User: Which sequence fits this backbone?
């Protein structure tokens, strides 16, 4: 971590007692690794539940005590946690696919919550996460957010990089933030790209990588062509369940934003995660991109 | 036109006098052709201003009296209209690119409105259209909407096809309509696609064709995979300048929606255009898709 990162959010950190043990339910991406390493650095030995097809084959994760679980075996999660005497659970990382329902291994616990899960799926990701969190807590575990375990992951306000937004970038940041909030309110996506003062692309299920790939291709589009710079903004959904699915960026986001010809990235301070912080900032500095924390609930 | 098309909007038709002459400023797509043919059928001989790079080489359009104009010569539009004793102007069709500012042929009229145009560009398409319409009207012409010339172009309420939305499609129509309205309010796009009850993709500058192409690719995405059906919804922006840029669908939209695996299309009744109506419905019927007019200001 660099000195540009404030520690104002450090008080959010969960106090873990001697008998406490944290399980990291690990999806894809760098967040599970960051959380596990943060726990280890603080002297706590994490237990990793690697979601098959998402987190498997990560040697860093596999270096901790771990087990694998297919999405279809999700009904076995609670028994697994109990067997390992887990007290706290962190849901970290992405889950890019939906379970194959026909392959789900039936358990009594699962049958009990299945109607809730189906209703939640119809309401979108956020609804689903709330149900899963509620069910895990009903079993006596405490579900905590990645940022409550490793507060340094939370984006701080202001520029994190040498580069800062130029005057024209501010209009892009405003426009993209308003758009990201609007689609977040509908539980569609968390990210938007603005170029030349107007929003050109919005995130759907394709995710931020797919969004940036599209922007790269749109550079040749008649309505974008010739315009330089532009920004990516990611922000949390209004009223989002902060213990899961916080928007995040990392080194790969910086690379993809640069490949899309963007000048920088804005994230909502206090409500977004910057993964592999040192590496992310280093990469952005090397490429001349800015990464800036935007005031939460600011520009609308 | 088929009997399923109501004529409730026919009273919107502009009454043209003997000395009136309508110019169709023609961008890309089928709308200029539909408007020109509608005028000709009503006994009015249209004058077509074909925007170079957008409407050129359309033999149907070229069969009417016409002239060509590059976007960069837009300052010559008013003199051209005056020369042909035009009284009414319809702006019809898409303009996919922005003018090359350096190639713009300067005229005094253009220099006068350039600051307004630049400000309007920054506010998005709708702002730009308002400025252009205002300037043309300030020169004494009456700018009318395509639907005021050919009211049958407007989508009516209810199903236009043999196929009708199934129960599951109604949730998709609601979700996509709410999303399309939200991004329309931000002047980003006019269309959204929902599959399995949730919005998966939103229109940006790539346009509806690009959106549907993306949905086709997303069919293999983990979060969409396995789900059938889904809908495209297009709707007008709230408070949209109805005399230009009304959302439209046509036979090509039906083909692209079908290729994307969608079950149907919803358009906002009274605020959307169905181009080549007979052909559009015939194509949808052949493919088993529904096309339905949604109550304007209905589901939110």
Assistant:
């Amino acid at each position: 971590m660099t000195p540009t990162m404030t520690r104002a959010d450090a008080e959010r950190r969960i106090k873990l007692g001697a008998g406490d043990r944290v399980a990291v339910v690990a999806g894809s991406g760098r967040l599970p690794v960051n959380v596990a390493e943060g726990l280890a650095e603080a002297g706590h030995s994490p237990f990793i539940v690697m979601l098959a097809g998402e987190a498997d084959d990560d040697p860093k994760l596999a270096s901790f005590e771990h087990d694998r679980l297919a999405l279809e075996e999700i009904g076995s999660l609670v028994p697994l946690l109990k067997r390992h005497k887990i007290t706290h659970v962190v849901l970290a990382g992405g889950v890019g696919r939906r379970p194959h329902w026909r392959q789900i291994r039936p358990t009594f616990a699962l049958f009990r919550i299945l109607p809730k899960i189906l209703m939640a799926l119809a309401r979108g990701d956020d609804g689903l996460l709330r149900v899963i969190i509620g069910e895990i807590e009903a079993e006596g575990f405490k579900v905590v957010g990645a940022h409550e375990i490793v507060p340094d992951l939370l984006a701080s306000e202001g520029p994190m990089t040498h580069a800062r937004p130029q005057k024209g970038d501010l209009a892009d940041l405003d426009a993209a933030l308003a758009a990201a909030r609007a689609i977040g309110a509908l539980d569609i996506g968390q990210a938007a790209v603005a170029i030349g003062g107007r929003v050109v692309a919005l995130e759907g299920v394709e995710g931020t990588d797919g969004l940036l790939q599209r922007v790269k291709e749109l550079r040749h589009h008649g309505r974008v062509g010739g315009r330089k710079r532009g920004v990516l903004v990611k922000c949390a959904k209004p009223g989002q369940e902060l213990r899961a699915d916080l928007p995040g960026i990392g080194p790969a986001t910086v690379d993809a934003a640069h490949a899309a010809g963007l000048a920088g990235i804005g994230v909502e301070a206090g409500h977004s995660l910057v993964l592999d912080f040192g590496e992310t900032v280093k990469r952005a500095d090397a490429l001349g991109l800015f990464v800036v924390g935007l005031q939460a609930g600011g520009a609308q």
User: Anything to note?
Assistant: The radius of gyration of chain B is 19 Å. Chain B touches chain A through 35 residues (CB under 8 Å). Confidence is low (pLDDT under 50) at residues 1-10 of chain B.
